């Protein structure tokens, strides 16, 4: 999932702790592989370990960034075939 911030970064940062806690919970369930802000910080990337876009949208719909209206996400499917994530455990 690729996010785009909809408000100034200061407003995004007001929600960031809740967003990071949400991602931490998903990570504990093996649903988040990695995540981080874009540089420059106009959005971010969340690499989810899910079977399909519907599940990704379901999960990201509960992200505090979405619930508070500070970011929107678009989905981009990807299957690693090389490198460090090639053998990452599937959901």
How does this model look, in words?
There is one protein chain. This protein is of the alpha+beta class. It has one domain: Alpha-Beta Plaits (2-Layer Sandwich), CATH 3.30.70. It contains 3 helices and 4 strands. The chain has helices at residues 9-28, 53-60, 64-67, and strands spanning 2-5, 32-37, 44-48, 71-74. The strands form 2 sheets. Strands 1-4 form a two-stranded antiparallel ribbon. Strands 2-3 form a two-stranded antiparallel ribbon. The chain is globular and about 40 Å long. The relative contact order is 0.26. Residues 10-74 form the YCII-related domain. InterPro entries: Dimeric_a/b-barrel (IPR011008), YCII (IPR005545). It holds the Pfam family YCII. It comes from Paractinoplanes aksuensis. Belongs to the YciI family.
The number of strands is: 4
Written as H for each helix and E for each strand, in order along the chain, the element string is EHEEHHE
Q: What coarse outline follows from CA principal-axis ratios?
A: globular
* Portion of residues within helices: 25-40%
What is the fold named in CATH at topology level? Alpha-Beta Plaits
CATH architecture: 2-Layer Sandwich
Q: What does the radius of gyration come to?
A: 13 Å
Reported for the largest beta sheet, the result is:
2 strands, antiparallel
CATH superfamily: Dimeric alpha+beta barrel
Family: Belongs to the YciI family.
Pfam families: YCII (PF03795)
Protein name: YciI family protein
Domain YCII-related: 10-74
């Amino acid at each position: 999932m690729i996010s785009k911030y909809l408000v100034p970064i200061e407003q995004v940062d007001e929600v960031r702790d809740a967003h990071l806690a949400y991602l931490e919970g998903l990570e504990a369930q093996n649903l988040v592989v990695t995540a981080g802000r874009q540089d420059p910080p106009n959005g971010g990337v969340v690499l989810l370990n899910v079977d399909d876009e519907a599940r990704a949208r379901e999960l990201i719909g509960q992200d505090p960034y979405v619930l508070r209206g500070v970011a929107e996400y678009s989905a981009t499917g990807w299957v690693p075939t090389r490198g460090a994530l090639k053998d990452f455990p599937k959901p």
